[in-house]
Amino acid sequence: MQWAPSKSIMKKNYLFTPGPTPIPPDAYLAMAQPIDYHRSEESVALIKDILEKLKHVFQTENDVLFLTSSGTGAMEGAVANLLCRGDKVLVIRSGKFGERWAEICTVYGVNIIPIDVPYGDSVAPEAVEEKLTAHPDLTAVFATLCETSTGALHDIEAIAGITRDSPVLLVVDAVSALGADDLQMNSWGVDVVVSCSQKGLMTPPGLAFAALNSRAWDATERSDLPKYYLDFRKAHQRGLEGSVPYTPAVTLLAGLQIALSHICAEGIRNTFSRHARMASATRNAIKTIGLPLFATSPANTLTSIRLPEGIDGKTFVKMMRDKHGITYAGGQGELSGKIVRIAHLGWMNENDVIVAISAFERGLAEIGYDVQLGAGVAAAQEVFAK
Ligand code: PMP
């Protein structure tokens, strides 16, 4: 007889990646219930309830629509639904995800004017203003709230201050930062926000969201780019009736409803405060340990840490996962091996941060970095004690 399950839970695993993120137990339980037909009365009520709760999280009065895809599906949908062949758009490229906006636009035959920002930095809003003045024929600006590949936060409020009184649409990727870093879609005047399930929304990967204001809906009427599965107008119309154009990830919707209930009960402003405290404690700990933060304006979604010469990030991340069951994210692309990213995102609290920091210190010591064990934890505790 074999007693051991295929994957032992006695080695407890901790997920500190910027997506997927940990899932609340009652959301797991909701997803373990018998599956329902997506056109049942209960599913209609579930979809309507989810779309209402999402408005609170998006801080908008606009309708939110959902797609069964990862976050990139909503990004691609934004390009395909808002633009026309030959349009010219401004793309802020400051990491992998800003670059993704540019790649999607290029695939759709849209011309891009890039603003290239060094990895780790955030765009200067004046640079956006200059480009808009230099290119009066731009139709949209594509930006990222938290550039997850570097940990940098962009000043979307300031950029919206530039675009909202112009005919140029502001499209924001809040895939990682929704529910962690503030984004006031309505009051800042952001035209389009896209996001997904597996980050701040504490649900497995597989659902993507988009909110559009009336200017953006007008643009969808003009758009002549091809779209079928990602047609926003279809998803929107059906969503209003608690319906969907195609079979959705029913199981994930059941979990999402519970996860969103937690955010609504906490109140989105309190959710931001919790993330701000966790981020501030993490930053204080890392500085005390003696390592530099990688982002000049770090987000509350995650903290990126530049590793000292001689410490290979890939080895460190692998060792932490294999030996300690701690999963941090490494660097992507040219940052591979050079940075470590610790997320404090979604279903997390102050104690999770203490685990993340204490394990980080211990791992650094094991890999040969001169660290005073407990110094980072104390620095984090100091922030929490305030
Ligand atoms: N944008 C940002 C800012 C992200 O963090 C991610 C995922 N890490 C994506 C886009 C892509 O999302 P997905 O992997 O769900 O398609």
Architecture overview:
The chain contains 14 helices and 14 strands. The strands form 4 sheets. The chain has a 7-stranded mixed beta sheet, with helices on both faces. The termini are far apart. It is α/β, with parallel strands linked by helices. Helices cover 44% and strands 15% of the residues. 48% of the residues are buried. α11 packs parallel to α13 (350-366) and α13 packs antiparallel against α14. It has helices at 25-31, 41-58, 71-82, 96-107, 125-134, 156-163, 185-188, 214-222, 232-240, 250-266, 268-289, 313-324, 350-366, 375-385; strands spanning 14-15, 64-67, 88-93, 111-116, 140-144, 146-147, 152-153, 169-173, 192-196, 208-212, 302-306, 326-327, 329-330, 339-343. A hairpin with an 8-residue loop joins β13 and β14 (339-343). 4'-deoxy-4'-aminopyridoxal-5'-phosphate (PMP) is lined by residues 19, 70-72, 97, 144, 148, 173, 175-176, 196, 205.
CA radius of gyration: 21 Å
Strand content: 5-15%
Helix content: 40-55%
Structural class: alpha/beta
Q: Biggest β-sheet: count, sense, barrel? A: 7 strands, mixed
> What is the topology, as strand order, of the major beta sheet?
2-10-9-8-5-3-4
What is the mean predicted local confidence, pLDDT?
Answer: 97
- Ligand types: 4'-deoxy-4'-aminopyridoxal-5'-phosphate
Low-confidence stretches: none
In N-to-C order, the SSE pattern is: EHHEHEHEHEEEHEHEEHHHHEHEEEHH
The best one-word shape is globular
Specify the number of helices.
14
The N- and C-terminal alpha carbons lie at a distance of 54 Å
Number of strands: 14
